[in-house]
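On clarity, I found the account of how folds are encoded harder to follow than it need be. For illustration, here is how one protein appears when written out as sequence plus structure tokens:

:::
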Amino acid sequence: MMKTNMMNGTVEQRRRWARGALASALAATLALSGCAGGTYGDNAAESGGAAGEGGAAGEGGGAAASAEAVDWDALIDIAGMDFAYSDRDKDASYDTASATKIALSGAGATVEGDGAAADGSTVTITAAGTYVVSGELTDGELVVSATDQDKVQVVLAGATIRNADGAAFEVQQADKVFITLADGSQNTLADGAAYTLADGEDEPNAALFSKDDLTINGSGALTVEGNYRHGVNSKDDLVITGGTRTVTAKEDGLRGKDCVKIADGSLTVTAGGDGVKSSNDEDPTRGFVSIDGGTFAMDVQDDGVQAATYLRIAGGEGIVKAADHALRSEVEAAMTGGSFTVEAGGKGVNAETRFTMDGGTLNVTGSEEGIEAEEIIVNDGELNIVATDDGINAAVAERSDESADAEGSSAASNAAGMSAEGGEPQPQGETPDGNGASDGSGVPDGAPDGAMPQDGQAPEPPEGFDGQMPDGTMPDLPEGEVPTMPEDGQMPEPPEGFDGQMPERPEGAEGGQMPQGGRGDMADMGGASGPLGANASEDCLIQVNGGAVTIQAGGDAVDSNGYIEVTGGTLLGVSSGNGDSALDYEYGATITGGTVLLAGSAGMAESFTEGTQPFALVIAQGAAGAEVAVADAAGTTLVDYTAPSAFQCVVVSAPQLAEGDAGTVSVNGTATEFTASTTPTAGGMGGQRGGMRGDFADGEQPQGDGGQGRGFGGRRGGSNAESAQQGEGAQGERAQGQGESAAAGSSAAAGGPQGEVVA
């Protein structure tokens, strides 16, 4: 209950900030929000259909409004999770003299001792004890079938087991099985490409398969070849505390349904599915992956590491290359230590509700988006991101349609017919809201005759219709002059009295400094905007409290569908996207501490909306490789950064700057002056391309009038599914609803190399 109350209070505080009021105890409140738990299930209720402060109600909506509310807190219980390792998990010792010896030889085996027996090419262990296995079985199986109270230790001491039509090592029943890799030994487990299974059975499905808890320890080496489906699969816990493991798999490399815990050792995975996976999404204390140590090298065709509930990285080091997401949790993820370099076709880190970084080093060297979660909180550590789209993106948490416990191939989830909005498969002819026609035409049920089908084609005319009115004449045009469209490439005539001059610079604006835009009724921030974006939510948060963050983004460098808060640390980066911003948010961005240097395009430039530490948005252009430095009035360098891509403006803030202090932004030695302030510069300079239109369907008219002046600041105005995100209207183009009239003075507008902070 305390967690919920704290977060609810924080959300209300942010609402007050969005209306332009800064709380007196801002710093303390920000620190509190960073450690508070979330009430993620409130998304739909909080964000649905709310208008921006100055936008039309219902226009912006929020995607969360139409999504079914999820009680995220019910899905995860981190306090109840067992991240510890037992003494026996870590103890790889054994007594050779008292152990039962199993010697494999071609198509058979011999057993010396109790608790095991050989039947042709199948060796079965039926009792608790220690069993030392050596030799080679060319086409057979090692089976553990004991009681559910028995603990069994199997020592692989130079053992190779291959099975052409089933698992090489199968645990059918035990309390727990310990596979110890004998010191200096080389061991191999390999299954066949096709299994012979009993009718109605789909298990075993891995070269090393266990229905009960499984631990791998020792200092030897193990190669696992999963030719059928998975490499290693435990239906309970999978614990690894040592050894060198090389796993290749047709589907997933290592699976532990209830959890995967890795304390030490080396792991190399090449897989057609996920690298490491825990899939139990029915128990809030299970379904987690916990990494405390070890070295890793993964090259997989789906997710690198995937957890159904919680991904915890507290140590270890390695490289993860994934065709989809590198590090993924269906609920929450956290990093407190370790050093990992990841490359992803999708997201470097994807955690639905929250990703928290309290230490360690994470390098996202390539990704579509670096990190995505509803809340991204950086308290400590080093985070470097390279992304073709957004660097850090706070987006509304959504429950995956793919069952985390699915035992089938992950490739099966990549079905055709995914909707653009939510990725939901749509029946043929059905609209995203499910109102498709039963005949597959795409016309919603109950639509009037003549409604446009969903493929954009005009309906067939009535039989016999020749384009004429009933009396054979064409309809009359309205009285008066028929408006004409401007020539191609020409702008429409300016309003009467317009002299072609730009408006005067607002009083108090510095040369080279951009006037700041605002949202809603924040008139002192350069005018109102249109409605909120389609995915806006007050639960979305990016918070930097410490550590060092660098971002090289093709889209927005730091993008929140809610709030951005910077209280400490360093935040350096560049956005190279045309029309994207180094800093992008829906409700507001506050700064109370830390050092910030973010460079980006001027097309959608945004700065902080408020804070207790002064900031500035400065026009300063540079090409890729430009040296950018921020200095105070005395010429002392506060922070410098080598920008890996071109930029047109810079957002800056540093603890050394006081209210009203002068400073400079230098690009390759060319300085531009600015004045730091805790509030954005008053006034605007006209609309930035009149608000951003987005991509409208043929024949669709965006609503409202866009400004025709060129200026910076102001949030983007469009609100269709694409416009709020993309903003691709042309200058002077009509765009969706502006929040305030022009007469009221409103205008709607639209990782790389490490930088150095100088004390």
About this structure: The CA atoms of residues 285 and 467 lie 68 Å apart. The mean pLDDT is 75. Residues 128-348 form one domain. The longest strand covers residues 151-163.
